[in-house]
Amino acid sequence: MHTPHYINGHWQAGEGGDVLVVHDPALGQPFAELVAASPAQVDQAVAAARAALPVWKTTPVAERADVLRNVAEHLVQRRDALVALQMRNNGKPRHEAELDVDDAVATFSYYADLIETQPTHRDVELAAPGFTSRTRLEPVGVVGLIVPWNFPLVTSAWKLAPALAAGCTVVLKPSEITPLIEQTYGEIADVLGLPAGVLNIVNGKAETGAALSNHPGLDKLSFTGSNGVGSQVMRSAAAYCRPVTLELGGKSAFIVFDDCDPDQAVEWIVAGICWNAGQMCSATSRLLIQDGIADVLIPRLQAAFTALQVGNPLAAEVDMGPLTSQAQWHKVREYFAIAQQEGLHCQAGAEVPEGPGWFVSPTLYTDVPDSSRLWQEEIFGPVLCTQRFDTEQQAIAKANDSRFGLVATVASTDLHRAERVADALEVGHVWINSIQAVFVETSWGGSKGSGIGRELGPWGLAAYQAVKHVTRCTDSKTPL
Ligand code: NAD
To answer: Which ligand 1 atom minimizes the distance to the CA of 151?
Structure first.
């Protein structure tokens, strides 16, 4: 806690102006404090990453892959501690915290295999005689990685694993709300003897994030977080004309057709809005219900929301924990007040259980008009709004009527229709008849206001690679 910044292979004490107070949201109480990195320490981290780049990018691919496999193995060894910390600092129920660790492990293993099997260069056939040409994939260079608090271990893994696999060196800035969990990546780097400067971690609030995103020494920045900060990060990238990946917010639709089994649909809908207490960029917070099933579905949803066990994640029977930060708790409660002012029909929730802790109950508003702020804005809590539709075309139009475009879920036993609707949705990922399962082999990222670029799969690796072409004249007499 006293030396929370991992810079150039050493743990350093913070020299910044901010103190980060780490909370247990189920109790609403602090349990750790750390001093943020100063802008000068961010400079040191970027300089260390720059100095380490020539060695890391020329390290044989098989050795880089081994490092990634070793990171995965060390994460497995630390599983119990990582699960416990995520339960305590994020308020995640045990099964959710366990899945996060599994996801991070799978990500490092996947990119170890992918980088080893990906051809490092490819010959290109030219129509013109007298020339040969080949491509080379090279690391983008020194990369800044800025992440939020809702899935800290996972979001960081989705950036660190492909960046390190590609041969980039990195400076990671975790969220000030969950700054402890990513320390594990620095500890593992230490144990593995990763060359100093390949992986650096600086903790802090907006000032530290801004010092990193505005730093002239980066070749690329990959950011996951809110749209407001994302647009500032993009502005900084524009100042240097350098690439940026943005994974931003969402207001995603869940479309239920009337041929569905209502009980099965309820299970998927509840998971889509109550997993991680709704603090998911991919929360399917706008539910579109076909007229024929609405009167059956809504009472069952109401019953399911009311039956969910909300409480301290240390209790085994708990389905949903608290919101992770007090600020998020205030924000969700503000939306309860807005819903009241707007006269929305509340079918469940909109309650704040007696303290301690930053809990809210799962909340259901039905027949919410398009004009409602709750229909339009990302709330980042367990708050579901519904509308009804008649035809497939109406469902598509309503789902696409959003400035966001992250994900969607379609539930229907007519698979042709479900696939057709999936094709028509303006989002980065669609689930058909399933819970929100994210596999490392598939892409992750949004369309429209939900971001720029893709993570995971080969696209996640490509985000950290630059294409170079080498073209050679094989015949000096060939006219140009
Ligand atoms: P946030 O934008 O407030 O913070 C994200 C990170 O940016 C934090 O590390 C923060 O310290 C840093 N930061 C803050 N101000 C900065 C600045 N001026 N310059 C540079 N960095 C700065 O977001 P949050 O509240 O931590 O996370 C919630 C948001 O993240 C939601 O909107 C959610 O949808 C989004 N999110 C998106 C995805 C995705 O994959 N699309 C995944 C998870 C979360």
So the answer is: 43
Residue 331 Cα to ligand 1 midpoint, Å, equals: 15
Alpha helices in 240-342 (DSSP H): 262-274, 291-307, 326-342
Q: Please state the atom number of ligand 1 nearest to the C-alpha of residue 328.
A: 25
Residues with CB under 6 A from ligand 1: 146-150, 155, 173, 175-176, 205-206, 209-210, 213, 224-226, 229, 232-233, 247-250, 281, 378, 380, 406, 446, 451
The candidate with the shortest Cα–Cα distance to 308, out of 265, 269, 361, is: 361
Closest CA to 324 of 96, 35, 76, 106: 96
Residues labelled as active-site residues: 247, 281
- Residue to probe by mutation, ligand 1, list 175, 244, 328, most atoms within 8 Å of CB: 175
pLDDT in tens, the chain (480 residues): 679 999 999 999 999 999 999 999 999 999 999 999 999 999 999 999 999 999 999 999 999 999 999 999 999 999 999 999 999 999 999 999 999 999 999 999 999 999 999 987 888 889 988 999 999 999 999 999 999 999 999 999 999 999 999 999 999 999 999 999 999 999 999 999 999 999 999 999 999 999 999 999 999 999 999 999 999 999 999 999 999 999 999 999 999 999 999 999 999 999 999 999 999 999 999 999 999 999 999 999 999 999 999 999 999 899 999 999 999 999 999 999 999 999 999 999 999 988 899 999 999 999 999 999 999 999 999 999 999 999 999 999 999 999 999 999 999 999 999 999 999 999 999 999 999 999 999 999 999 999 999 999 999 999 999 999 999 998 866 555
- What does the alpha-carbon distance between residue 45 and residue 43 come to, in Å, rounded to a whole number? 5
Residue length of the chain: 480
Run of H or E residues at 101: helix 94-117
Paired with 169 in beta bridges are 142
What is the C-alpha to C-alpha distance for residues 368 and 387, in angstroms, rounded to an integer? 6
Mutate to test the pocket of ligand 1, among 173, 226, 252 (most ligand atoms within 8 A of CB): 226
Q: Do the Cβ atoms of 39 and 211 come closer than 8 Å?
A: yes
CA dihedral 330, 331, 336, 342 (to 10 degrees): 140
Instruction: Please identify, by atom number, the ligand 1 atom nearest to the C-alpha of residue 148.
Output: 26
